[in-house]
């Protein structure tokens, strides 16, 4: 269904493209013969990637910060100026840092700016241009399971990623009403993926844990779901199966329906029942 968007010569714009999931996506799309407009704040890493994949396809690198509307405007102007269209906008840049429910307000603002408002801003700049162009197109926003089952520990990140889920659902609906299949939106939710974001959370020199997927594994899985036209692209990893994800989401939603305590999965009185639910006993 979305094969036309990923066809040779079409244009992908990726934020946070210099490392991790964004870089794996860039390499994947370059191998498909797509033209690329890559955006990151890390000029050195972005330049290196541009040189690497620039040998196989047309690549334009734009250094900037996703929290800057001016930088995102430059990205859009560059993509349309150099390539004339955007087939795929992947709002991928994100950061995680702990900020508790009554934590540092500046850290909250940074999490929301980086993970949510950057996408609101990118959508406000890109979507009107993409709607006006001739070819079909899609927006892919990076969510997180932390924005769906919202485990304790990273309240600000979870709130931001929950916001990304809602924002992307609203975008998908509005686009469907306005233009049908001409432009679509997709929520891309990785499982545990071995990228600099997660490497940084482990002691230096740690090897990839068994349960983590590589970014390439993740993008290969994403590719099939995106081509099929899925909206919710919830990815497994080496430890969490799609069935485990479905059960965890069902349990989280039923907290509200059954009037259980918030986040009952992690509540001492409910943990046993959650384990039994997961085991189907
Ligand atoms: N890795 C995982 O397990 C995982 C799981 C769920 C969701 N995600 C989401 O996937 C996305 C990518 O994650 P990742 O693991 O590849 O991250 P990463 O930290 O490995 O790479 C992120 C890239 O974004 C760039 N970046 C950071 N801040 C930026 C800014 N302000 N402006 C422009 N570029 C910036 C970095 O320089 C880096 O190149 C994020 O939105 C993240 O929340 C990741």
Describe this structure in words.
- Helix content is 48%, strand content 14%.
- The protein is an alpha/beta fold and 281 residues long.
- The protein has two domains: 11-239, Rossmann fold; 241-281, no CATH class.
- The longest helix has 28 residues, at 105-132.
- Residues 15-16, 18-22, 40-42, 65-67, 92-95, 114, 142, 144, 190, 192-193, 195-198 line the site of nicotinamide-adenine-dinucleotide (NAD).
- Nicotinamide-adenine-dinucleotide (NAD) is lined by residues 15-16, 18-22, 40-42, 65-67, 92-95, 114, 142, 144, 190, 192-193, 195-198.
Q: Any descriptors?
A:
single chain; Rossmann fold; two-stranded parallel sheet; alpha/beta; 9 helices; 2 domains; binds nicotinamide-adenine-dinucleotide; 281 residues; seven-stranded parallel β-sheet; 14% strand
């Amino acid at each position: 269904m979305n094969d036309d968007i990923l066809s040779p010569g079409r244009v992908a714009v990726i934020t946070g493209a210099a490392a991790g999931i964004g870089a794996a996506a860039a390499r994947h799309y370059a191998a498909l013969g797509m033209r690329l407009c890559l955006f990151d704040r890390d000029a050195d890493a972005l330049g290196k990637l541009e040189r690497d994949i620039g040998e196989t396809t047309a690549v334009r690198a734009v250094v900037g910060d996703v929290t800057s509307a001016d930088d995102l405007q430059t990205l859009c102007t560059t993509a349309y100026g150099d390539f004339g269209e955007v087939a795929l906008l992947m709002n991928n840049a994100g950061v995680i840092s702990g900020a508790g429910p009554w934590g540092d307000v500046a850290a909250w603002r940074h999490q929301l700016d980086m993970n949510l408002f950057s996408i609101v801003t990118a959508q406000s700049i890109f979507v009107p241009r993409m709607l006006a162009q001739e070819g079909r197109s899609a927006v892919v926003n990076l969510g997180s399971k932390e924005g769906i089952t919202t485990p304790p520990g990273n309240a600000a990140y979870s709130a931001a990623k929950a916001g990304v889920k809602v924002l992307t659902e609203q975008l998908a609906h509005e686009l469907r009403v306005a233009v049908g299949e001409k432009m679509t939106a997709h929520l891309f939710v990785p499982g545990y993926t071995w990228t600099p974001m997660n490497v940084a959370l482990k002691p230096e020199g740690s090897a990839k844990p068994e349960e983590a997927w590589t970014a390439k594994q993740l993008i290969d899985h994403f590719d099939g779901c995106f081509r099929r036209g899925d909206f919710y692209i919830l990815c497994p990893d080496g430890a969490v199966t799609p069935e485990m994800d479905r059960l965890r989401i069902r349990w989280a939603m039923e907290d509200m329906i059954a009037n259980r305590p918030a986040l009952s999965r992690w509540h001492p009185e409910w943990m046993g029942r959650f384990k039994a639910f997961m085991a189907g006993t």
